[in-house]
Structure formats: structure tokens, C-alpha cells
Design a protein that fits this description.
The chain is an alpha/beta fold. 35% of the residues lie in helices and 20% in strands. It starts with a helix and ends with a helix.
Length: 372
Amino acid sequence: GFESCASTFQQPGVDLFFVAGVERDLLGDLEDRAEQFAAAGLGEAHLFGEERAIFLGQRGDFEFETDRAGDRGDADGVQIGELFHVDPDWVIPANGSDENLTIIMRSFCDAGQQIGYPYPSYVLYESLAQIQGVQVHRLGLGADWLWDPAEAARLRSQLRIFFVPNPNSPTGTLWSTEQLLQLLPDQGVLVLDQAYADFAESPQTAALLQDSRFDGRLVMTRTFSKSYSLAGIRFGYCIAQPTLIHGMRKVKDSYNCDAVAIAAATAALQDQQWMLDNRNRILQTRARLAAALPRLGFHVHPSEANFLWTTHSGVSHRTIYERLKQQRVLVRYMKFPGAAEAGAELDGLRITIGTDSEIDRLLQVLPQSVQP
């Protein structure tokens, strides 16, 4: 109830506190509780809806407005610009990184035109293309998770957009700038989907946008869902040359970023040390898991993301997945039709790097899950 909210919000380092989907009979009369929140010196409490509500506690320098509509995400454009050393007109915030991908598709590709992406990777690109009436080309990845440069050169002349997640999913492969240049369409844009970039040792930065070799036709997307651990607020952003951003703004939805998401994203941007500490913890746990899995018969692909792509030669991946699920341990079983040699199906397990206690539990039950 209120006392729990107040106690939590008074903890050191807590600047924004949300309670979502609260029933009236749980917190009593919301208006009275809001007055108590303010009287306790905890800042403002904003109420949304009638029967269900969100409390937001606010203190410090955060500005939070709920009584007007507008592209309030522009304020975050300023902070994102400062973080990446670009002006705000290089930035467009969105309702999650996936919305940025939708905006890009609508901005740069008409029905009947063509896009490409490395396969296996993020199959949402195909779904967005189908909605837009766009043809899709898969650039196949070999056993080393690299593409054939000759095939990439052939595709470049046909494509309006080439999407490339870097680091890639499901493997966490990070491709170099020189490799990315092989994918720049002759008359289109290269979209660098950097959802997992904060977990890489040396990810490409916004300085790449001013590399003349990309001819001003590079677009970078980022999200708060991974390194910031804020998937629930649905906030992402795109960085590109202002001429590209100007065109993308024309096709985005009006008021696509809500006030609560903007407030949370602003707080996260202002606390980079928390994000970096979170990142470093995940990298340490990733290294520990990567060292442990081969002792259980797994092949582990080197990863620069917050997950590991693993395969096992002794037991089927589906069987391992089901056995772990019975132990209430969830990993992701993934399969990609036509991605293996001779057009066979490729499958494996993508294991997200959770907390240390979650990884301890995985390693505890994994030995019995890989028994023949």
C-alpha cells in the first residue's frame, strides 16, 4: 500500500517510482493517497485513469507533464544527442526500438521494393516487410556466421534498406566497420540495429554516422530494453543525418512517446553509471557461464551481447529445452529453416545472461538435462 510505496521511494538512489495497474480497493481513495504522498515530502504523485492508476513519485530535477499532448520526446532527443555527441536534430525517439524499425520501413521503402538482412538474425524485419508489401532477401550466414562478400555485392544494387543487427542475434556476433560497408545499398540506407551494442567490447559509435564512406546513408537504432533493463517502458531512439531524420518524422505516429516513458528514460539517461555497472555485471556473468558450458558438452559461440548461443552434439536442443522447462528454468530454443548446410534447419539454445543466482540455478539443473 501507500506505506510500502513511501518506504521504497525514500531509499537512496530512487528518483522515480512507479506502481502500475493498482486497484482502488488496494490503495483506497487515490486522491487522498496522492495528498499523503506530497505531504510526506516525496514529491508529486500523478494519477492516471479512474479504476486503475499509475503512481509516479518524483523528486530532483525531473520535469513531468501529463496535462498536454506534444512531442515531449524531443527533450530526450537533447540528452541522447549529448550522450552521442550529436545535435538533437540527429535523433528521433520512439515507442521502443521496434517502432523505429517500422518508421524506417515506411520512410525508405515502397511496396514492391526490396530489403535485405543477414540470416539467421532478427526475423521481425521480414514481418515489417510483409506489412509494407516489400520483398525480402536473406543474406545467408555460413558456419562461421559471416556472409559471402560476393553475394552481398550482388544484393546491394537491388535493395532500398539493409537491416543488420550488430551485435547479431542469436549469436552475439559483432561485425566490423569494414564488413558493414559491404552491406551499404547502392541507392538506399544501411540500418545498424544496436539493441545489444552496450554489451560489446568496442561497438560502433555515432562517429560512424559522419564517416564519408557511408555517404550519409547510415541509420543507427538503440533501445532501453537491454542494458538499461527497462523493456517495460517501451522507449528507443534512432540516430541519423538530420536530412534522414526530417523525413522519418513525417511518417511517425503523432505523440508516439508517452509522458511516463519519457520521465523514466530521462532518469536512466542521467544515470549512466548504473547502466555501466549493470553492463559490467552481465559481462562478468557471461564469462562465467561461457567457461562452464563446455564442461557439459556445449559448444559456445563467442558473444558480445547479453546472451550465449550454444549447441550440443549429444542431446537434441529441444530435449534440453523441455527438460530445463520442467525444472522451471527457461532458455530460448530457436530454429531457423534453411540456415544450415544444404538448406537444412539450424537450431540451438540462446541463453540469456540473468542474475548470478539464476545462472547458478541453471548450472545446478543442467547436468541432468544433458544426459543421453
